[in-house]
Amino acid sequence: MKFSLMIKLSLIGLAFAALNFLTADPTSAHGGRRVGKYELNVGFVAEPAYEGLMNGVDLRVEIAETEEPVAGVDQTLQVEVTHIASGVSKTLDLQPVKGEPGRYTADLIPTAPGEYRFRFFGAIEGLAVDEAFESGHDQFSAVESAKDLQIPEQQLELREVGSALRGSMDSTAQAQNSAAAATALASAGLALGAIGVLAGVGALVINRKRAPSQPAQKELPQVEEHQPASGVAAQAALTHPVSNKTNGKRLSD
């Protein structure tokens, strides 16, 4: 709900900037400089310039002595826009402004407050040009925060919303990376566990194959005990004694 309100406020701000863009005086708060026989007037299209609102580089080129506008500069000249505090730069192509000879623009939306540098490089009618203009120092507007225009409540700037979104996305990405790392570690642990189980089973099988087999014990046949003959005779003698007479007769015979 709050994010939707912010979008609506941003759209209102863009509409306001577009109206200011169309009605702005092209020579107000611009910096001027003579380069060769040419006079260059430089600034933002809409001044004062506000953060997050549609704007553009504004360049007017004319012959200094006669104030005659110079045509065709968009074919041979470019502009490098730099946010001085951050050092971020971007090169833009110039476009002629319809119905206004000698005036050129390059659309942009400044997304941070502070001072900006416009560096024009290339050529004007064969004259080599490399000229830089800085806001404040060359009398054109620095970019201001749009919060000063907001009432009754100040809303987040687009850069602040972007920073919050990037922070949320970074946190989400870190959480996803952590979850992916945990999943990878768990998978590796399962794989190592499976390898350990397989190694244990293999070792058990190998040990069983190497163990010597026990020979089956054969049953010995039972042997009947026989007393020696001498013992049998002695027992019989004791059982049936022979009289002395008989023995003596046998002996005499």
Short summary:
By secondary structure, the chain is of the alpha+beta class. The chain has 4 helices and 11 strands. Strand 7 and strand 8 form a beta hairpin.
Give the overall pLDDT as a whole number: 76
Proportion of residues in extended strands: 15-25%
In helices, the fraction of residues equals 25-40%
Q: Can you say what the CATH homologous superfamily of one domain is?
A: Domain of unknown function DUF4426
What is the end-to-end distance?
A: 153 Å
Compute the number of helices: 4
Computed over alpha carbons, the radius of gyration is 56 Å
Helix/sheet category: alpha+beta
What's the total number of strands? 11
Question: Any idea what the shape is?
Answer: elongated
Low-confidence stretches: 9-27, 242-253
For the record, the CATH class of one domain is Mainly Beta
